[in-house]
Amino acid sequence: MLPLPPPPPTPDLKKHIHNRISNSLIPWQRSFDFWLRTARIYAGYKVFQVRVSFVKDVHLQEAMWERQHQLAADNIYSLCSDLGGFFLKVAYSFQSSLLLFSNVSSSIPATPSFITTPGLGLDDVFDRFDPQPLGSASIAQVHRARLKGHNTDVVVKVQHPGVEKLMMTDIRNLQAFAYYMQKTDIKFDLYSITKEMEKQIGYEFDFTREADAMHRIRCFLYANNKKSPVLVPRVLKDIVTRRVLVMEYIDGVPILNLGEEIAKRGINPGGKIAAAAKQKILNSLTLAYGQMIFKSGFFHADPHPGNILICKGSEARFLVALLDYGQVKDLPANLRFGYAELVLAMADNDPIGATKSFKDLGIKTLSKCDKNEDQEMLKLAQTMFDTGLPPGVTTLQPFSEGSSLEKFSVEGFPEELFSILRTVHLLRGLSVGLGLNYSCAKQWRPIAEETLHRAGRLKDFYLLLNCIEIFLNCGDSRYRPESSSSKTRILQEIIPQEMMNLGVEKDREHGIF
């Protein structure tokens, strides 16, 4: 007698099998979509290069390149918007304008929220839990809630299911493309950058690590300032798991909506008060990052617009809150000091110092300059590691014809420096979006100087001279020279006295005294 055939699968089993097969095919589908669309963008540029080579008029060439860049930007926007996830992070990393991706940040679909704690449900932990998320990003979404027995609200960050596997697939596709591009078209070590991105994004899936980072940075900023330049949410460590994070709720509006918020407060968006508010916001962020990078070395490495809030209830002050500590960087001391020296060189427009700092940082370059190599190296450093833009320039195209990156091949770039590079470029994008042009190197100069001084890498003599330079422009009557004789008195009397106060011997080697 033949055995009976197995019973047909139940509807639930059929659905389960169908979902398993569909989920296993998603990475392949995303990979195919990425390579198809990337190939189209790349081929479009290669065909265009042939076309534009037949055009002799320089102005017409520039206009054609502008149209081609806009077409490519639209296609990249579409790719990032449609695929979402990791590609939105890439977009934010290299954006030069807040406006380009402002709509993408809020377009990521939310997933049905669920929080599982052994033996507990939502009702056991929360008095209230809003199922509609406040926002949804590439890795997680956040909900407003209230814990049992508390009278203040909290934010609950919940990781999207299955997101880790998809994002790691995406980044490996990007690594392969970056490796190809650096071998064929762009003389920059893109592959090392994508390796650092892979490492940093891998950390983001562990919310216990993020909670520790948030607590550490909050303690540092609050301990080193009478009033912290930015607000950092307080973590509720007792209810943090690898995929769920609970923190205090900060009421505010995204910085992308700053114009609307300014208008709501009865301020003329084009007036002096609005301009001063924007400058204060930028100064607060710059100060916080300067302290984190140079004094601590442990810093928030993801200052894209979605992670910056303008707090409500602070009408006169425009307080800033810095969110999302999934991407942080603990910078080794040698790179921290090396970047501090580079900041001094950039702030002082010192080409020799910039060249030396690049070598000390381990950035390997191959020059294609016919002349003024050190000066071009300074421009390269400022393009990569400073936020300032040349006069009249609103967007920086680092790989455009005639740029410093066309005159140098960056053949080796330390992975550890990528987080600084990314942070600077995001701050530049933020300043462009606010309509401001400023140099973070000049803002960070005093902090970098102090860091090097404390490490014994900057002589008190030079620190004092810089202090005197600052005093010359401030209200201290001793340092306001009305004539050359007053300046001589500063050199002969005041500086030696201040040096004695510091316990420093006169530096006769330089022949000043």
TrEMBL record:
Protein name as it appears in the record: ABC1 atypical kinase-like domain-containing protein
Source taxonomy: Eukaryota, Viridiplantae, Streptophyta, Embryophyta, Tracheophyta
InterPro entries hit by this protein: ABC1_dom, Kinase-like_dom_sf, Mito_struct-func_regulator
ABC1 atypical kinase-like domain mapped to chain residues: 121-351
